[in-house]
Specification:
401 residues; alpha/beta; eight-stranded parallel sheet; three-stranded antiparallel sheet; globular
């Protein structure tokens, strides 16, 4: 199939830069791996890989000039009769895809780089920022898109196949976390096998499987196969539960409630649900969580662990024992003053440096500078910097120099 690189539909150019991107010269003698960045999807790209049987349900980018409080988010996806993202009202999720929207054009990099429809240019920009490998995640699929599990699996297969082709044009730089339809364990296993054959480095799931928690025995076939394949599982923050998301009526509740708190449910599953009792060789990471949330979670979990009120506890081990004895990793980008304390809590060998490019941080159209914060962090010694910027991602994802 031809790709967007040869598409007859030209992509919008980027607006004049509001943030200066300087070429980085590394003072370190080790390579630097980004554990989490994103594709901000555009039309005429991944959705063209949808099987012909779903052609009549192919997602489309449409104009959306009626978002009164966010006029720059003037494009949206039309997927199976729904607007995604909805942008306002009940369940008004806000995302920076489709990248044809004016909001994306204001970022200081061209849209084809944001969307990875020009993977060669994307790879070069990452090199200019001092990165030697980047693992890419979807933006669009941070929200549950449909209740039709077969259609969802087809959408994810389309994204994975498209992403594999984009990676093939810059294989020395770009890796990707494949999407799997976790709500259908059988389909998830099939897609995980397919994605690995296509070159996926890991799989991405959301913090719950819709309204079900990840430690539900229904999902054991997925966890079993991930262990057997030695496939890293990345639990990415998002909006996994449509009913809970729809109950959020304001932007603050969308982010503080449905989004931020989603990862708490995944903490419960991974650290108390017995998954590691059944599958002790799993590798799991939490992506774009708030490290301070985990500190609070561990404190509260260890408070409840010995109490009669919480018996029977689903897992055989205490939450702290799960943390110490199993391969659980944590992405980090955010509160850098807290970083040394967090590394002391979870272990220097468990923290993954994340760039989160091209998502915005600290103000509109301001992109992440997380690697600069970590490179220059006065509270981290050289060995800790090497672990965060290289060793831990290499261990978790199996990346080679």
């Amino acid at each position: 199939m031809s790709t967007i690189l040869n598409s007859p539909h030209p992509l919008p150019a980027a607006a004049p830069a509001q943030q200066q991107w300087k070429k980085y010269t590394s003072p370190f003698d080790f390579k630097q791996f980004d554990s989490d960045s994103h594709v901000q999807e555009v039309g005429d790209s991944w959705e063209l890989y949808l099987p012909e049987e779903f052609a009549h349900r192919r997602p489309h980018v449409i104009d959306n000039p009626h978002v009164s409080l966010r006029p720059s988010r003037n494009k949206t996806w039309y997927i199976d009769g729904r607007l995604v993202p909805k942008n306002q009202g009940n369940g008004g999720v806000v995302m920076s895809t489709p990248a044809e929207m004016d909001f994306a054009k204001r970022k200081p990099v061209p849209v084809p780089i944001q969307a990875c429809t020009d993977p060669v240019a994307r790879a070069q920009l990452m090199r200019d920022q001092g990165l030697d490998r980047t693992v890419l995640f979807s933006t669009l699929f941070l929200e549950t898109l449909t209740d039709d599990l077969v259609y969802e699996a087809a959408l994810m297969r389309a994204w994975n196949d498209w992403m594999a082709e984009m990676r093939s044009k810059a294989p020395d730089m770009i890796e990707f976390a494949a999407l799997v339809p976790i709500r259908s364990p059988e389909l998830a296993v099939q897609e995980m096998r397919h994605a690995k054959e296509k070159g996926a480095t890991a799989v991405m799931i959301l913090p719950t499987a819709g309204e079900r928690m990840l430690h539900d025995p229904l999902f054991d076939p997925f966890w079993s196969e991930a262990q057997n394949m030695n496939m890293p599982v990345c639990v990415h923050i998002g909006w996994p539960n449509p009913r809970q998301t729809f109950e959020c009526t304001t932007p603050s509740s969308i982010f503080l409630g449905a989004f931020d708190l989603s990862v708490w449910w995944a903490y419960i599953s991974i650290f108390t649900g017995g998954i590691y009792d059944r599958f002790p060789r799993l590798k799991v990471s939490f992506v774009e969580h708030d490290a301070r949330f985990f500190s609070l979670f561990l404190e509260r979990a260890m408070h409840w662990w010995p109490t009669a009120a919480c018996k029977p506890w689903p897992g055989k081990k205490s939450p702290e024992a799960v943390l110490r004895e199993h391969a659980v990793y944590f992405g980090f980008e955010g509160d850098y003053d807290y970083m040394p304390e967090f590394m002391k809590l979870v272990g220097d060998d468990r923290v993954l440096g994340a760039f989160d490019f091209p998502h915005t941080h600290y103000g509109e159209a301001s992109l992440s500078q997380s690697f600069d914060f970590m490179r220059d962090h006065v509270g981290l010694n050289l060995l800790q910097k090497r672990q965060v910027l290289h060793d831990n991602a290499a261990a978790f994802y199996g990346l080679k120099d």
